[in-house]
Amino acid sequence: MERTYESAIAFLRGRRRMTRPNPSFTISQLPIAHLPNASPTFRGTPSIEGMREWLQKLGHTDAKIDSLNIIHVAGTKGKGSTCAFVESFLRVYGERTGFPRKTGLYTSPHLIETNERIRIDFNPLPKDVFAQNVFEEQVDVAIYETHHGGQYDATNVVQHPVVTGLASIGMDHVRELGPSLENIAWHKAGIFKAGAPAFSLPQEPKVAQVLKNRAAEKGVTLKFVGVDRDLPGNLNIKTQLYNASLAREISNAFLELKHPGVSPCLTARDIADGVQRFHWPGRFQIVPEGKYSWYLDGAHNELSIGEAAVWFQQVSRQGGGDLPMRILIFAQKSDQRDSLGVLKRLSETLNLSIQHAIFTTYSDNDNGRLLEQYRQCWKEWFPWTEAWNEQTPWQAVARARELGKGEDAVHILVTGSLHLVGSVLRQLGDVLQS
To answer: What is the DSSP letter of 255?
Structure first.
């Protein structure tokens, strides 16, 4: 095969399951487990099925994977940001001490290009490097974000992570992982491995108990992490304070195990520099474009959409002066969650005036029924708001710009899906490069 970026992407896609059928697969074929309500659930084909065999065909044994020094992070909200904070802290530390010399970060989904998912020293692999070394890059630490779940997630082929971590856990991917919050917590804690210390953000009591039970079953030391009051003051978003606090604990535990003898591990300067360098596209991101300000957050479940709403009303109210026109662009299409429930949560939390709500989709197969449901519900909740349906994100952006004509300032919240945020970022590409 020719080693071009396009060939590499085609190679990967050709070996990906494009659908998740319901085969002759039963829960009894999964590793023996005791879920909280004694009714284990997992619908469809677990993504971990066949993953180890696939990796071994590529020449990647368990020992070779373990040599990457993996940090494994799961959760419902904030797991990607936590991974990015860990990478930033360890990269700054490595520049000061010589270890790690090279950091690796795997997250999903990507926003614009596939190579965003694999980053070396936080830089997405250049397309030529991706093509030449898509399976061959060696790093001193690899930070892995689960896709969803944990126990049967594709990333859980990792047998011996160095450290594991759990961000906030809430209701999401209920069709596969539910029906209860306890069930979801059980799946998330499936990344715990004997010999690897585990850390978690504070959780609801019933979730915390499941995590404690899972840790005890696996012989894992589990520590719950609160807000670190020594973090720099420029972290003014509550959820990012928690994610950075968790990342600091994970990073220090990793360094104690892999780079012992250097104390303290992360210094105050490391933390400050790591926070300063932290950047996570599509999450709490602001893109200025003349009189238009685009506020983008890929929140896609009830837990994260509330945080996005609080953030938007905080930043949109800053600066004083005349009130801006405020526009919402929302898209979500998933059979893994209650999308109307997510929109309802947004409406309940968004405590400021929205003049226009634009509902769109990123699926070519959508027949408009869901968009009309969104529009009707929004009009019921906010009858004074103009509500619009647009078939594509491109049309939604065009509508927002048209509505903003004649206004002095326009604030546009784009949320509900990382796919939506990625589509809008592609349209704002010239703005981001200028």
So the answer is: H
Q: What is the pLDDT of residues 62-117, one digit of tens each?
A: 888 888 899 999 999 899 999 999 999 999 999 999 999 999 998 887 777 777 88
- Distance from C-alpha of 308 to C-alpha of 252, rounded to nearest angstrom: 29
How many domains would you assign to the chain? 2
The CATH code of the domain that includes 137 is 3.40.1190.10
How many residues are present in the chain? 434
Residue 320: per-residue pLDDT: 54
CATH number for the domain spanning 388: value is: 3.90.190.20
Q: Tokens representing 331? A: 């898209």
- Which residues, in sequence order, are CB contacts of 87 under 8 Å at separation 6+? 103, 105, 119, 122, 143
Cα 207 from Cα 184, distance rounded (Å): 9
| Residue carrying the six token digits 């905080």 | 314
Measured torsion, CA atoms of residues 226, 232, 234, 235, in degrees rounded to the nearest 10: -20
As a whole number of angstroms, the distance between CA 80 and CA 329 comes to 23
39-53, 59-73, 82-96, 117-131: which is most confident: 82-96
Are 127 and 115 contacting, i.e. CB atoms less than 8 angstroms apart? yes
pTM: 0.84
**Secondary structure class of 254 (helix, strand, coil):** helix
The single-letter DSSP state of residue 352 is: S
- Are 423 and 393 in contact, with CB atoms under 8 Å apart? yes
Last residue of a domain, one of 261, 277, 293: 277
One domain, residues 258 and 402? no
Q: Between helices 238-258 and 302-316, what is the axis angle to 10°?
A: 120
Gap between the Cα atoms of 247 and 199, Å rounded = 9
